[in-house]
Specification:
Layout (H helix, E strand, L loop, with lengths): L1 E5 L4 H12 L3 E6 L18 E5 L5 H7 L6 E4 L6 H6 L1 H18 L5 E7 L28 H18 L4 E7 L2 E2 L10 H10 L4 E4 L5 E2 L2 E2 H13 L7 E4 L5 E2 H12 L5 E4 L1 H5 L14 H7 L7 H14 L9
Parallel strand pairs: 1-2, 1-4, 2-3, 4-5, 5-6, 6-11, 7-10, 8-13
Antiparallel strand pairs: 9-12
Length: 328
């Protein structure tokens, strides 16, 4: 395939770009480097089939020029991500997420496949589960900035599916559930790299709330594998797919597992949401995906690789010299 990856210098985008190149595809990668890093692409920058362009998906003209001639597939991952980013820069985040998707859809040719990356955040406060793609989306109060990211992603999904329905592009949506692995930064509020860095540095591990809220963590390799398979499946356009694995773990248990695998003697401390994020945040107790549609469509579903992810994140942090293991 000839593929365009937006947000390619980010956590998932860089892994996706590598996976596409390793299977022989040509990749054009764009990123404005606001939150992504060229370091994430260092392994492939010199590949003949790879081309990186520093550009913003909100620049519609730049995106249209890139898409002439058309790509076989566009993976649209560029977005404002992370709780801290959304709360600190809500207007810029909304503009990036909405205009970026609108521009990607406008630039895509009718024969191209466009994959729009969405998020499990769209399910909001729906704590039932496992959650299928048809599950109700239940959001909190409109003035809470916590939910504005979900609102923008719901709009992105609607734009993609409406464009597909009107025959403008072969579009599909992937809802990602807590993807983890190397290159993920804790700078924007991502829980696993934050906990691992704290453990390696001998600092207290910060857990918000009572820590009994549960999540399901998916290793990035599995997320990328599923996205590529969906791009090649003739049955996927026009649909929404959850991508995740269904083994739940509380954040308290996650912190304890991080301590065990890193050999750290750090303590676990609990911080209230009010103290961490102010009045614009509320959380949900449980979020578990039903990925049966994904498995029926591509014959694959992610499995629980949390220990592997913790070890990989720890190894990367240590290699960068960002923490020394406080082991016995």
């Amino acid at each position: 395939m000839r593929a365009l990856v937006t947000g390619a210098a980010g956590f998932i985008g860089s892994h996706l770009s590598e996976a596409l190149l390793q299977r022989g595809d040509q990749v054009v990668a764009i990123d404005n480097l606001a939150t992504g890093s060229l370091r994430n692409l260092s392994a492939v920058r010199s590949w003949p089939a790879f081309r990186f362009i520093q550009a913003d998906v909100c620049d519609s003209q730049a995106l249209e020029r890139l898409c002439d001639p058309p790509f076989d597939v566009i993976f649209h991952l560029a977005a404002a991500v992370g709780v801290r980013t959304i709360l600190d820069h809500p207007l810029a985040s909304l503009n990036t997420n909405l205009r970026g998707t609108e521009n990607a859809l406008a630039a895509a040719a009718p024969g191209s496949t466009l994959i729009v990356a969405s998020t499990s955040e769209v399910y909001g406060k729906n704590e039932s589960g496992p959650l299928s793609e048809q599950a109700d989306r239940i959001l909190g109060a409109g003035e809470l900035a916590r939910w504005w990211y979900a609102v923008a992603k719901m709009a992105d999904e609607a734009l993609a599916l409406a464009s597909h329905r009107e025959g403008k592009v072969k579009a599909l949506v992937v809802r990602l559930f807590n993807t983890v692995g190397p290159r993920q930064t804790g700078r924007y509020g991502m829980v696993l790299p934050n906990l691992v860095r704290q453990a390696l540095a001998g600092e207290p591990l910060t857990v918000y709330g009572d820590g009994e809220q549960t999540r399901c963590f998916t290793y990035v390799e599995d997320t990328v594998k599923a996205m590529i398979a969906l791009a090649e499946s003739p049955a996927s356009p026009g649909l929404i797919f959850n991508i995740g694995q269904s083994t739940e773990i509380s954040i308290n248990a996650l912190a304890r597992r991080v301590l065990e695998l890193t050999g750290s003697r750090s303590k676990i401390v609990h911080v209230s949401y009010q103290e961490a994020y102010g009045d614009s945040y509320e959380d949900m107790r449980r979020r578990v995906p039903d990925c049966s549609l994904l498995e029926r469509t591509i014959g694959f579903m992610p499995t629980n690789r949390l220990d592997e992810a913790i070890r990989a994140v720890a190894a990367e942090i240590q290699a960068r010299g960002e923490g020394e293991c406080a082991s016995a």
